[in-house]
Amino acid sequence: MIRVALVDDQAMVRVGLRMILESEDDITVVAEATSGVEAARIVAEHSPDVVLMDVRMPGMDGLTATREVLAAHPGTRIVILTTFDDDEYVYEALRAGASGFLLKSVDGDALVAAVRVVAAGEALLAPEVTRRVIEQFARTSPGTVEDADPPADAVGDLSDREVEVLRLMARGLSNQEIAAELFVSATTVKTHVSHILTKLGVRDRVQAVVEAYDSGIVLPRP
């Protein structure tokens, strides 16, 4: 059973999320909160596997709550609930350790699938949002094109193929899509992704992509 906590200051949003999630046999909502302060408390009390966290809330916002929850409970998986207007907050939440993000307009099937993916230890990179968020707010590295040669110290121990895979991850491609792009098997891609996470010292795909932009392995498009 996947244990989920809902953090949103709008009651109707929580009601809708609960109805969708609890219609599934393998998901249960164990707690709800209306603020970031309450989020830290319910995670400590109920130990959910996944937290669906709103960004804009009174008092402590979702970004600060994400940092606090993950500092105290690093095994918790947090998915940010957002609108396109919250892009900057989302990017900072990913840097703080969130496992991904969902648009509040997501349909029920996609919501359920996302919870299962994150609970299984994967990261949620939605292509239609990933490029917009990361490319807009990761413009701290020099350069103007995505496939420029990265600094040697940024690449570290990554092989040429692993750098190639990481760049495709940064575009929001799934393992299957990367496999098709590189004409290899999905199993091979999964192995490359595992090696990338280990070498970069990060826990999931989202953190790998953020690290790639921050270090200059991948550069934002102009």
Topology:
Layout: E1 2-7, H1 11-21, E2 27-33, H2 36-46, E3 50-54, H3 62-72, E4 77-82, H4 87-96, E5 100-103, H5 108-119, H6 127-137, H7 152-155, H8 160-170, H9 175-182, H10 186-200, H11 205-215
Parallel strand pairs: 1-2, 1-3, 3-4, 4-5
Helix pairs in contact: 2-3, 3-4, 4-6, 8-10, 8-11, 9-10, 10-11
Describe the structure.
There is one protein chain. By secondary structure, this protein is an alpha/beta fold. It is built from 11 helices and 5 strands; from the N terminus they run E-H-E-H-E-H-E-H-E-H-H-H-H-H-H-H. The protein has helices at 11-21, 36-46, 62-72, 87-96, 108-119, 127-137, 152-155, 160-170, 175-182, 186-200, 205-215, and strands spanning 2-7, 27-33, 50-54, 77-82, 100-103. A 5-stranded parallel beta sheet has the order 2-1-3-4-5, with helices on both faces. Helix 1 (11-21) links the parallel strand 1 and strand 2 (27-33). The radius of gyration is 17 Å and the shape is globular.
